[in-house]
Amino acid sequence: MNSVDQAIDYILSSAARRSTPVEILANERKNTSVSVQGRKVEQFSFAETRQVGVRIINGHHEGLAYSESLEPQSLDEMLTEAISNSRVIKKPYASTLRGGGAHPSMDFIYNPSLDTVSAEEKVQEALNMEAAAFDFDPRISNVAYAIYRDVWIRNTIANSSGLRANFQANSCSAGIMCLAKDSEGNVSAGEFTVSRDFGQLGAIANAKHAAKRTLDRLGARRPTTGRYTIVFENRIAEHLIEMVGSYFSAKAVDDGTSPLKGKLGQKIFSDAFTLADDPAHALGNASRPFDDEGYVGHKIPLVQNGRVENYLTNSVLAAKMKLPHTAHASRSPSSDLGVSPSNLIVEPGSKSLPELLKADGRVILITSILGMAGFRHTSGDFSLPVEGFLFENGKQVHGLKDFLISGNMLQLLNSIEAVGGDALMPLGSVICPSLLVRDLNVSGAS
Amino acid sequence: MIVNDSILNKVIEQAIAAGADFAEVYLEDTQTRQFSYLNSRPDKAVSGHTLGAGIRVLSGTEQIYTYTNDLSEEGLLRAAAQAGAALKVRSKGKFAAPLKLESLSGPTPVRVSAADKQWSNLKLMDEAARSVSSLITQVNAALNENRKHVQVFNSEGVNREERRNYLNAFAFAYAEDQGNKESGYERTAFLGSGDDWDKVNFREIAETAAAQSLRILKAEWAPAGEMPVLIDSAFGGVIFHEACGHGLETTSVARDASVFAGKLNEKVAHESVTAIDDGTLVNENGSLEMDDEGETTQRTVLIEKGILKSYIVDRLGARKTGFKITGSGRRQDYRFAPTSRMRNTFIAPGNSTFEEMLKDIDYGLYAKNLGGGSVVPGTGSYNFAVNEAFLVRNGKIEKQVKGASLIGTGIETLGRIVKVGQELKLAPGTCGSVSGMIPVTVGQPPLLVSKLTVGGKV
């Protein structure tokens, strides 16, 4: 069987013969990756793959299976496995399959011109990026990596109730990490950029920015252990919001694993904090015309001036928990039905980053989180390794390294004193400006 | 075999003719079954079939990699032609006639276990965790079986296949008291057949997760700042994995982006430290018969009495650095080109007793149970989370504390390991890096680090 569409036709027919209601998800993917090292191509990688998965729904019973082989025998085995699995799994509430119907187009998530960029242009972009970093200043001693990537996806959903819809999306990205040496060893800084337009990617400007920030880090020191006023730079603030995104999942609330359980309607965050989820945001990398059950979503307020307004739901949890159906079903061909945010958007404030950095005589700007293992998802407690810069009276003094920040994420969002107005085109699915908090624990030199 | 030799011969011939000096086909056919239990009932059952090929061509140190689900002759030849055409530097390679297929298999024959037995084990875990305390409000238990069949066929005559059967069981327990929530986690993972599930103490896994969640729930915050840290055995070995192991992979060393580059045969650690990366251990999570480049796995002494003895070397890393391959080319699946990766990595036992090490601490931390971590190889800055820790004062354990991540830099920390304990224990883990997420083992005896930065509250 040559195409995913043919495989879907085959599965629908086969399931109908077995009198089994089925939902099919198929993901097709093409991607390219170029990494360069020492002004030469280190690796050029390209690929074309697909995966098809079925969710068998038989009353309260559900079973899942997936396959990367589209041979009829493999597809039949997949259906048999899913049916077998469904005999064991009995859900407390029955899922229903969405029927056929129109879906809005979302043309902005697919840029046909990106598909026409040649392999040579991609390789040159990666080489130019690395060269821009090396040529920026002779003190750039090495480039740890310089990578160009692009991806095209086509997601299809079909079911026994007549739904059949798909969308395609593409984007390209570039990332670089530069190194420079000082008396204590290496310092580094990395930058990433994402775009749906190859011409707008800005990989070279990105590389120069990484190189400059690396040089700014020369002579970085450890801060003394204590409590500090902190500004999370916009890119880092995106990470913080991403960490708590799943707290708004009605599934996590229903399972009792979200600390937001029982908090609906309560004001538990700062007045300055307003958050929404928008699956149709023009800048969002998670924009999609429909969710993974085929339902069309729209902008949902999650937090309004600190008050929890909504949880995100799929059709099953909306019915079970008697909540509005927000169309945030998420699953892949290989995973079970759940709930996930799409694009999370923090409402910007009015202050610029320089204004935030003048909030106190001494302010630490956090510019990098080095690892996420120290975030305890269930409680929101965190102890995270970070890097940044010390500012005194709004002026950058020196880089900071080898320290941690500690606290609780819910308390941190409650202590936001000001939100900046400097949100960037997101790297992932969060749009967030810089955030100012006071009195955060910093572990560094004794 | 996954694809017959005559097709693979054509693929390699085509790649070599295009100007590669080395060509390789990696084939993978994996069956997975995942069962999970939530809300005290079966929650999820997923069966999966992963099938694909990765084709790699090298010309000197330039690497072209492509992968596809299309394992037909036409699909593989098309991918090989595209890979060859993408080479910027052309070489004149030779195609050594491949040997007859050599079949390797994991240390035990593969058998799929009965699903009904799996569900009984999951029910047992759910009940065991909940029986620890009425404060346990949720349990998520899961069993995964992953039957992986890989074949490597290359232009140097390698034609080998291996079957690896991974078993993985874990439990998350959630505790709640007066509006505060915490979770505990325990897992086991190893190579084995379906029959080997009988060796697993499911009750102990669940009870450990539950007891951990309750202890963390009641713990106060760890102190902040620099102090001596006694790191316990087993998963404590993640400190070496992060602080040192990644920096010894030729992926970083060849780029001169590792603090360990150029330090072979130099003293990089305290003389009490000997560290080994061993793929030959029976049934451990990171064990292999061959690596994902078809090389026989090895036991590699990395550091001996503080002296750096070897890096972790894959094929491309060997070309770039001139070091001998250590059978360490690994990848998550066919979507990733192989790179140098750790297998079962541990610090060898020393002479100190636990009590001696504890006694050396005036004010510090005993890190009993560690979580995950990461490292920036270029700077050597590593970090890892501590799930369970205890404050130590005047050589005695005083009270449990939470929220402590630890940071340091690789070489500096190795130099600060001042005592190594006697009892080596291993623990399974999953390592993420350039070539994806792979099963590994970490391990160590208890060891004392004279100074680390602890991320707690002031």
Your description of this structure?
The complex is a heterodimer of chains A (446) and B (458). With 446 residues, chain A is an alpha+beta fold. Chain A folds into two domains: 4-214, PmbA/TldD superfamily (PmbA/TldD fold), CATH 3.30.2290.10; 220-446, no CATH class. Helices cover 22% and strands 37% of the residues of chain A. In chain A, the strands form four sheets. A six-stranded antiparallel β-sheet of chain A has the order 3-2-1-4-5-6. A five-stranded mixed beta barrel of chain A has the order 7-14-15-16-19. The radius of gyration of chain A is 24 Å and the shape is globular. In chain B, a hairpin with an 8-residue loop joins strand 13 (329-330) and strand 14. Chain B has helices at 5-17, 73-85, 115-132, 202-218, 238-248, 250-253, 315-321, 354-359, 410-416; strands at residues 22-38, 41-59, 62-68, 102-105, 136-154, 159-177, 180-191, 220-221, 225-231, 275-278, 299-304, 307-308, 329-330, 339-340, 344-347, 363-376, 381-393, 396-402, 404-409, 417-420, 425-433, 436-444, 447-455. In chain B, strands 1, 2, 3, 4, 5, 6 and 7 form a seven-stranded mixed β-sheet that branches. Chain B has a six-stranded mixed β-sheet with strand order 12-11-10-15-22-21, covered by helices on one side. Chain B has a five-stranded mixed β-barrel with strand order 9-16-17-19-23. Chain B contains nine helices and 23 strands. In chain B, helix 1 packs parallel to helix 2, helix 3 runs parallel beside helix 4 and helix 5 packs across helix 9 (410-416). The longest helix of chain B is centred in the N-terminal third of the chain and has 18 residues, at 115-132. Chain B folds into two domains: 5-218, PmbA/TldD fold (2-Layer Sandwich), CATH 3.30.2290; 225-455, no CATH class. Classes of the chains: A alpha+beta (446), B alpha+beta (458).
